[in-house]
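Anyone else keep sequences and structure tokens together like this?

Example one:
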Amino acid sequence: MKKIGSFFYHVFLIFALLGVLFVPFSFRYLDFQNQITRFLFEDLILFIGSYFEKISISNPEITSDSTTLYLLFLLLFVLAFAFRTFISFFDFWKINKNLILNTIQIVLLYYLACIMLKYGFDKIFKAQFYLPEPNILYTPLGMLDKDILFWSTMGTSYRYNLFMGLMEVIPALMLFYNRTRILGLFILFGVLINVVSINFGFDISVKLYSLFLLLICFLLLVPSLKKLAQFFILNKPSLLSPFKGSDLIFSKSKRFILKAILLLFIFMECLFPYIQKGNFNDDNSPRNPLHGAYEVVKIEEMITAKSTLNLHLKRIFIHRNDYLIFQYADDAMEDFYLETNSPNELTLKNYNGQKIKLEYKYSKDLKRLELYSSELGLKIHSKSLPWKKLPLLQPLFHWTVDEIH
């Protein structure tokens, strides 16, 4: 039984290592990872998808929670199982098993630290849970998806983002030091359980990847589980040995150089973009000059109008990512990609590639925006809405309920 447990522990370690190598992640300085994965696995994944009728693949790209990502994980597990079975017949494995396993553990450890630091600093600097966009603020609550609702709610509190970020950054930093590694892993295990619960509870499309991170954390804790159980459950004093791995390279100078290179890469990956921009709070990032919410006051329809646009416009929104969004009387939304051609001309592009040119006039003093299209024969008059003054965005805090009334 113990041998079977060890066998599957090795399989999952190898599986996790393959996941680190081939599961695409948006690294800024390792953008070739996705290309390698597609080259090695895309055709096989599509073949499996075509072979089984119940498997539906709408997009061959391997993205978060896509069918292709599930199939990739399945393939990696099969490969890990086959590799562990195959290598057990060789003396090389029997002689160097501990060295190989320790090497895999240290790779997983630094990978986990890197990902958690990246997510943690993204929260601290408000890049993950950013301030809700005007179109979200003016969407009726019941029409929001759960994931957008959660994302937007988290984005309204800088304090909580700071807390969540520190709860990921601090234990991730603890992984770099032998004596604090197990404690750091223990804290991260609780943090990741919470992350997985949120992803499932609010239908956020990072379910599979967050489970993968939780698996890595658990695998790294497995060698210490018995002693942790003795300490927390049986109240028995237990000496936790430092997490091994740094002794793989015996030269102290080489260990120092390698660790320094890894730490430099990790901190460049996590911090350099913020240092480069000199902005450590996304709420203060520059926006499009027209960014905001506008209430439609009047629509002038010319005699020659050939508009296919729904004229029951209620509001217009300019999104931070260069989108123009129309909100209609029934609160339905329609978005267009926005290109600013000149100080008074815009181009809207829909998802079919069709383009509409608009002339615009914006008065900062009067807080009015006029849009005119000779192509559609329309002139839209709108006024700026004070969306930043909405109650949700106010930094309200009350020590007692009496202060609310």
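And example two:
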Amino acid sequence: MSARSWITPAVARLRTTHPYVVDAALAALVLFATSLQWIFPGGKDEPLSWQGYLLGAATAVPLVWRRRAPFGTACAVSVATPAMAVYHAPPPDVEYGGLVVLYTVAALCPPWQRRVMLVGWLAGVALTMVHTDKTEPFEYAFHLMGVVCAYALGMLERVQRAYTAELEDRARRLERERAADAERARTQERARIARDMHDILAHAVSLMVVQAEAGPVVVRSDPARAEAAFDAIAASGRDAMAQLRRILGVLKEEARGGSRRLPQPGVSALVELVRQVGESTGLRVELRTSGEPRPLPPDTEVAAYRVVQEALTNTVKHAYASTATVELGWTEEALTLAVTDDGRGPSGAGGGHGLIGIRERAAACGGSAEAGRGPHGGFRVVVRLPDDDRQAALG
């Protein structure tokens, strides 16, 4: 086992231990180090006394409260340490308690307390050593460097703690942002599925209603046509049920934590859509294409199909039209869809929910939609869907 493998868990356990336990152990360690000078004096000319030992203990015992009251603890140790040095029984070789409180003040206290304590200790150490006899020059450097190093270590601890807190805060923010992004994605997916269900049901029901209304009229005069109408109703219902079953399957997959996407029709499926509408309703629908067709981003493909589907559904439901034209205009920047009929168009300004859905789908792809009277009468819906992938590639 490497040293790193057992040191890291030990440090983690130490950080989770109650502060009083850790600080009491530290105070006991400092008291033991200070007692060594009293038990093993450096020479026969160094006096020993219980008063000196008590002063030495006064530099260690307050460390129990160093994290609860760092500045107060530092003041108590700062008074006891020079008193012990001046009393000189025995003189302190190292200011153990002072080094600990300087580290603590630098790590925990506000700026003015840190500055006061650092300046006070530097001045106090210098004056105490001047007062002490037989002080060598290197001892000045040793004690002053000890003060500066303890303070510097405390500042490094402060910086490290602030850096760790910033990283933890950033991690929490990123986690919240990821959760928010996931929730937005779920909301958008639910809205997309709701629009798809609306389009599927509206289209299928419109075709079924048209055929159901025509069936009783021709059931006696033209049984074959009536049978075809009922077959069209059944085919529309089966197609709607199949698409709804796929959507519900995706919803169940998402509820179990999956991420499977619903397979969606695209521009290539418009040929079948136009044929189905023409055969089911008797509406003469023509599909025209200009420009060079090419693959589009998946969302744009779905939007193009649903826009045409919704426009034709509105034509069947509201326009009382006999003909309709679907035009696809391909350019390098966008696909323009135009659905024109010779009917009367929707009543009221701005259209109903179908036109709102068309505008929402176009806006979701960064495009635009317009609806109004056609150039030769009737009603016309024009949608422009930009090709973002191609523009990005050209850019």
